[in-house]
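Hi, here's the filled form for the chain we discussed.

Project: internal
Contact: R.S.
Residues: 168
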Amino acid sequence: MSVSYAHFQTGLEEAQHALTVSSPKTTHCTRSGVIVLRQSGGKPLKIKAELLAEGSSRTVTSLGWHEIAIYRTEEDGIVVAIRSLRNGGAESCVHRARSFPDTDQAATWLEEFDPSFDLSADFDVADPRASAASVSLKAATLRDRTERLKRDYRCLVGEVLFRLETET
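And the returned structure, exactly as it came back:
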């Protein structure tokens, strides 16, 4: 089962915002039943676990978005995986995975995570060819992108935690 919110542009029927939260299913699973979660800059986290909830904040117009997956391990611990993605291919992904003794600590980590941490500026303020007006405009655009990314992430966290609370 999937929950989806979509807002369509008048006359174009093009989704402007789609938040999807999926029901549990096995993903990233090896043949031996071990789930392997990537971690940027570190060893993958290998767990035997059941997927409890997952979701994505990707929209049609997204320049950056997040995907969250929450697992319950065989030892009754909780593992949370966050993927930060940007348009531009797999090399722009940042993967995080953390283990927690319970859902409350996992929820706190998700709520306190700063989704703008991996957002990069697509301009160089030290470029001597850039005018002050151009830098100001690009900074305002980056601020707007950051606020949209944070808002979409907060909505995603709320939906995933709601699903976790109501389906487990």
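Let me know if anything looks off before we file it.
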